[in-house]
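Standup notes
- HV: blocked on the assembly model, inputs below
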Amino acid sequence: MNKPEFVYTTYIETTPEKLWHALTDGAFTERYWFGHRVTSDWKVGSPYRFARQGSPSVEGKVLESDPPKRLAYTWDPCSADAKKERVSRVTFDIEPRGTVVKLTVTHDNLDERGKTLRDISGGWPMVIASLKSILETGRPLPENLAPNCEKADAQT
Amino acid sequence: MPKPEFIYISYIETTPEKLWEALTNSEFTMRYWVFHA
């Protein structure tokens, strides 16, 4: 595991299959990932891309795809600042725990004190909180809790 | 801040007052607090 890394764990009352769908279906990510729609065929080696209102935000390629247990992809933000940094990696581990699911998001291969590390440290707690909310209640969190995302979009 | 430390951030659709109550009311903490290792 490469330092620095960011690890975020939460427990969601859902099934591994529903959580996998929530991470990989573009119409669904658009609802809780603050407007970011993902597109990919989710085969290992295939490209994927997040786009908000048609403009790309993050892209990369699928490194591991083992539904509904483990998904990993490279993380290459589509902003000029982030392009100077090395391409990092995100891994989602999904483990059933009785009637709930343990989700661990590991983001590693990050630059020390880089923009990406700063962005994702603020971003994952919002995205995962909204993911948990939509899966448990049917409603995502409101978009206005993400002022940093709006600012980042305005800069690009 | 002395290391090691553990920081965890989340976002909850509630009010500050309800969250405070949830952290400080023993009847409520008994329902969700699971540290009993």
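- HV (later): unblocked. The interface with chain A takes residues 9-13 of chain B (CB under 8 Å). The first helix of chain B runs from residue 16 to 24.
- Next: hand off to the docking folks.
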